[in-house]
Amino acid sequence: MRVGIFDPYLDDIGGGEKYMMTIASILSAKYDIDIFWDNHHDLDLVGERFGIDTTKFTLVKNIFRPEFSSLDRFLQTQKYYAIIFLSDGSIPLVGSKKLFVHIQQPLEHFQENIAGKIKLMRVTKFFYNSLYTQRFVDKKFHLNSEVIYPPVVIHQRKFEKENIILHVGRFRTKNVTNGDYKKQGVMLQTFKDMVDNGLKDWKLIMAVSFPDDAKGDFEKLKSSTKGYPIEFLINQKNEALWDIYSKAKIYWHASGYGEDLEKNPEFAEHFGISTVEAMGAGTVPVVINAGGQREIVHEGVNGMLWDTLDQLQQKTIQLTKDSKLLEKLSKNALESAKVFSLDTFSEKIKTLVK
């Protein structure tokens, strides 16, 4: 039996692409997997970045491009047992026996005419990456859905912890209309303020990825850190990231800060894979109290949450001075991360598609 998978952002290497290609990898043990895309290089880059063997998949013509008619798409998908579709708000009309629609971020609308309603009725099930995403969408559309949290593979490294505050994230995100979606500029300025106010013997490391056309903007941001203990890791693969996760003591994340999240809920972190990865290395998260982060981090148990930059500074300073509290939260963070295991994700995906 064949399963077809479509991700409209396959050329933007991020958490959604890791999620979808991990699904493909899991299902390839039982099904023949087709990826609807036209550029093999994009698929290779995703596989290389996340350590996924994409040679097990077959690249086929991307019939979800606008120039293909709904009828043509319907006919060409009749041979599939299932289609798994990452939605940007659109729902395809397909001829497969089953259609599973994955939603990675809060969506404002689906097609609401008669054709759109027919398409919604043909969806076997919707599945989300977090309760945050599910609540926003389901309260509007009342869909048949469930949450399947992204898988996080824990790779512990035997490094001694260092006085490092770490952030990992893309510098630019193609499918989010916000120039500083990850609020990296905000975090850099906050750390600089802390150093100016007396923080010593700590450094901030920002592990960022960005496309070539964002290099100029990134260099401007980087130049603003001159003279401060701030380092950058650029476009690193998973192995290098696991090393730095294992060395860092504190993890920062700020997506959603300063935004009207009632109006633009997509500007908050929809889940927070990098936060869980950090926790899996025993790094204590000090992250914004918004979006999917609240499902991962529990205040004073496995990390800390903040609403204001003053709180971010205060809670970080507290951890730099209280080694016992840092050690306690580190151990709890490591245990909490195990909830988001690849085995759990795999079982849920297999159950979904069977």
Structure in words:
By secondary structure, the protein is of the alpha/beta class. 38% of the residues lie in helices and 18% in strands. It has a 7-stranded parallel beta sheet, with helices on both faces. The protein has 2 domains: 147 residues, Rossmann fold, CATH 3.40.50; 176 residues, Glycogen Phosphorylase B (Rossmann fold). It is elongated, with a radius of gyration of 21 Å. The protein is built from 13 helices and 13 strands. Helix 9 crosses helix 12.
Largest sheet: 7 strands, parallel
- Shape designation: elongated
Order of helices and strands: EHEHEHEEHEHEEHEHEHEHEHEHHH
At the fold tier of CATH, the topology name of the largest domain is: Rossmann fold
Q: Given this structure, which CATH class of the largest domain is correct?
A: Alpha Beta
Assembly type of the chains comes to single chain
Proportion of residues in helical segments: 25-40%
Low confidence ranges: none
Strand content: 15-25%
The number of distinct helices, counting runs of at least 4 residues, comes to 13
Q: What is the overall pLDDT average?
A: 91
The total of beta strands comes to 13
Distance between the amino and carboxyl termini = 11 Å
Q: Tell me the Rg in angstroms.
A: 21 Å
Q: Tell me the CATH architecture of the largest domain.
A: 3-Layer(aba) Sandwich
